[in-house]
Amino acid sequence: MSDAAKRSFDILLVLVALFAGWQALYHVAGETALTSPAQTLAYVGELLTTKGDMFARHAWETGRAFLMALGLSYAIGLAIGVALGAHRLSGAVAEPILVALYSLPKVTLYPVILLVFGLGLSAKVAFGAIHGVVPVAVFAMNAIRNIKPAYLKTAKTMRLGPFQVVSTVIFPAALPEIVTGLRVGFSLTLLGVIIGEMFASKQGLGFMVINAINLADVETMMAVAFLLFVAAAIANGILLWIDHWLHKRV
Amino acid sequence: MSRIGWIRLAVLAALVALLETLVRTGIIPYKTMLPPSEMLTALVRLLAAGTATRDIVQTLTCVGAALVSSVVAGFGLGVAIHRFPRVRRALEPFFATYYAVPFFIFYPVLIAIFDLSLLPIILMGFAFAVIAMCIATINGLDRVPRVLGKVARMHRMREFETALRMKLPAAAPHLFTGLKLCVAYSFIGVIASEFILAPSGLGHAIAYAYNDFDNRTMYALMLFVMIVVVTLNMLLHGWEQRLLKRWHGR
Fold it and tell me: Distances from the Cα of A199 to the Cαs of B60, B105, B186, in angstroms?
């Protein structure tokens, strides 16, 4: 077997083991706690077909909030990161503060968001965005700070204008690291939106899950969780691939 | 303290003062935000009255249990996986996906299995933190220079001694990164779980105060969580600097 084939086989083996573990857990914990893999997949099929309308409505709600939150966390995060990266002293002053913000359990702040934005879409969006902003900013800041001085000197020797310096030197040099930040920000923003929906919302996939648990509707809970899991994993896989590709190119 | 440290302190003080004036002058409505000075007095009163003591003790116990178990298990797992490159290559895609999926969504499953006790909360904190420690351990062991193994052999060190006096200090920076992430993630995992669904604990108390329109208690408890997390991080940072100085002479 070739190396790549062997690796794919091993990865498949891990996946099989995960499903086997799930099945075993189902036998131990019983029907009231969770559904088996086969039952979950069957119900996922049902959610996507016969119950498609209801599911699409909630998925759309989550998707819409997520896209808005993502746009906000990317825009604000990049603006902060680029500004702090360009100005060395501000960067040095702000970095530990950003790291402290990153390690705070932001759920504790959710009530503040709710008080400011009220129940509804804007609160979810804001909550998702505060999760994503910090990693995007930190990675962008470091990306710009760590550009080799020789690049900038070369640009000076070639008498590039400020616009050209940014578009042909700074941007390509910082891009791989920035994309890593965008990838991390993507996951955290999704986490923020879902947690927001679980706590205070009447719509969206997070609400579907928490509502299902309150109704002891194990099937819905497992199926929605499974779908979210798969969607997040696929999105992350694509972003990871872009990330690796960019890092290899430089 | 360095110049940058003073500037940072001044910036933070200015931000707090700004918030204080904004609330006092009514630009931010009183029902949305308390002035920071009142948050502090509310916290002092709350701690003196002892009404929150039980929740605080419970949350800190859960975080402690999650932290210790995740650091020990993550380190052990990391060392074990590092020994078997084939297993490691098979697990890599799963590690890369782990923090990208919103697995808070499975918290309800844990409740269904273990009931509404402390165990699901600790398990969420553990699950959230353990992989970070595992990845950090693997990264740290990767960075141990080969030459250290040779030096150890020249000095006829036993395996245990090599691990303790050569590999551990060499891997230490990454292990500390893992430890700090574990602290942050244990707090996030525990408090977020309590927030979503729990009979008691700080997260629950904050959510309860929010539902009760009891802003004073809510902001006092939020302030408490922030102070604890930031203090813990600063202590860890100081300990890290001291140990690294001793081991690496820097």
Answer: 22, 12, 19
Please indicate whether, in this complex, the C-beta atoms of B90 and A233 are within 8 angstroms of each other: no
Residues A181 and A224 in one domain: yes
Of A99, A212, A236, the CB nearest to B100: A236
**B249 Ramachandran zone, left/alpha/beta (phi>0; psi -120 to 50):** left
DSSP B81-98: HHH-HHHHHHHHHHHHHH
Q: What is the ipTM of this complex?
A: 0.79
pLDDT in tens, chain A (250 residues): 677 888 888 889 989 999 999 898 888 887 777 888 888 899 988 888 888 888 899 999 999 999 999 999 999 999 999 999 888 888 888 888 888 888 788 888 888 888 888 888 899 999 999 999 999 999 999 898 888 888 888 888 998 888 888 888 888 888 888 998 999 899 889 989 988 888 778 888 988 988 887 887 888 888 988 888 888 889 988 988 998 898 887 6
Domain spanning B36-248, CATH architecture: Orthogonal Bundle (1.10)
Indicate the number of domains in chain A.
2
State the residue for tokens 């141990």.
B144
Euclidean distance between CA atoms B74 and B77, whole angstroms: 5
Which helix (H) or strand (E) element contains residue A150? Answer: helix A149-157
Kindly state whether residues A59 and A8 are assigned to the same domain: no
Question: Is A19 in a helix, a strand, or coil?
Answer: helix
The CA distance from B196 to B219, in Å, is: 18
B97–A228 CB contact, under 8 Å = no
Closest Cβ–Cβ partner in A13, A186, A213 for B90: A13
List chain A residues with CB under 8 Å of B7.
89, 93
Q: Which 8-state DSSP code applies to residue A30?
A: -
